[in-house]
Amino acid sequence: MGTDSPFLLAAVSLLSALHMGYLARRVGWSRMAHKVLPPSVTGPPQFERTFRAHQNCVECYPVFLVTLWTCGMFFSELTAAAVGLVYIIARQIYFNGYVKSTKKRLPGFYLTLAVFVTLSLLGLIGILRGILHKYLHIHL
Amino acid sequence: MGTDSPFLLAAVSLLSALHMGYLARRVGWSRMAHKVLPPSVTGPPQFERTFRAHQNCVECYPVFLVTLWTCGMFFSELTAAAVGLVYIIARQIYFNGYVKSTKKRLPGFYLTLAVFVTLSLLGLIGILRGILHKYLHIHL
Amino acid sequence: MGTDSPFLLAAVSLLSALHMGYLARRVGWSRMAHKVLPPSVTGPPQFERTFRAHQNCVECYPVFLVTLWTCGMFFSELTAAAVGLVYIIARQIYFNGYVKSTKKRLPGFYLTLAVFVTLSLLGLIGILRGILHKYLHIHL
């Protein structure tokens, strides 16, 4: 592996985990503001958008962690950590936009997509290079 | 740990992450086909089955990653990677089946279960062997 | 990293993954008891509370894994593993409470929160210490 003490990846992962906790809290606040008691997940449109925004982040989060660490361990830790910070910002833009209107979720959504494409491609390059080297003794 | 450059585990993880992205896309296509606008998650039965099929994959995914890496790092990387590929296929069969009918989700569901049992058991063997060796100096 | 064969973290992770499988099973049993056929996720209040209890565990699980491993790799493996066991108990208390009534989910919820705060803070200490050492050559 490229790095044996991936402090930067760990720092971004921990930050993203805290960010997920903050977004969950936002749903809780929206419940209170719109008087939607658990376990109900339906209510005024703004609450439902807030709830779905969080759900989408929940769906994306493990995919983010896999691509972050793949890129960070096999391509470049610094690059992965930097793009990982962009991910957190992208999710915040997505969430804030979606709370306002369904259409306003799109800019943050496209930025999220760009992060996934970047991390996946760089991770793929790193893995292929590693497999060629380890199993076929081809040095690129 | 058994392996210090787990390229195969990383490759299967990255592939599974891309597969999760593809399944999310399928939900988006189903939204368009059935005219179900976000944030709504209710609509014609086929859309609701597609939505639930994806949700089930979201629920399973972190469990898969944990069992994949446990088996791969502490038992055998090659075995874990091969079974991990079966997982992706199992989820695809499950998803395609569930879209058609609730009952047709079952074959893919049972194959998923078989993957979890296999990865967990092998991972457990590897961990127990490791704990006996590291903490009790018993070599199996 | 603090540990190169994190068997205890792997053991707690595997146990938590099996616990997630058990909670998913509980939702399945609740479906049968209340005759709620998939893909429906609405029904009698007790089913809906059971369903939401599981969903909340799904939302929390990747956050748990990140904080567990951050604390375990960069602060102390034994501490993280012990607090990780408390997490599994906390989620069980939360789940059982939520099935009974919405209010009874709170003790398990607060215990979960305490676990997250503990793992995050210790992980943060470990990461900051590591970054100071690796990048700024400051030894604490």
Determine the mean pLDDT of chain A.
96
Can you summarize the main beta sheet of chain A? none
* Assembly state: homotrimer
CATH superfamily of chain A: Membrane associated eicosanoid/glutathione metabolism-like domain
Instruction: Identify the overall geometry of chain A.
Output: elongated
**Beta-strand level of the residues of chain A, as a percent range?**
under 5%
By CATH, the topology of chain A is Four Helix Bundle (Hemerythrin (Met), subunit A)
Low-confidence stretches of chain A: none
| Range of helix content of chain A | over 70%
Major interchain interface with per-chain residue totals: B-C, 28 and 25 residues
What's the number of domains of chain A? 1
Number of strands of chain A: 0
Report Rg of chain A.
18 Å
CATH class wording of chain A: Mainly Alpha
Number of helices of chain A: 4
The termini of chain A sit apart by 16 Å
- SSE order of chain A, one letter for each helix or strand: HHHH
Name of the CATH architecture of chain A: Up-down Bundle
Q: What class, by secondary structure content of chain A?
A: mainly alpha
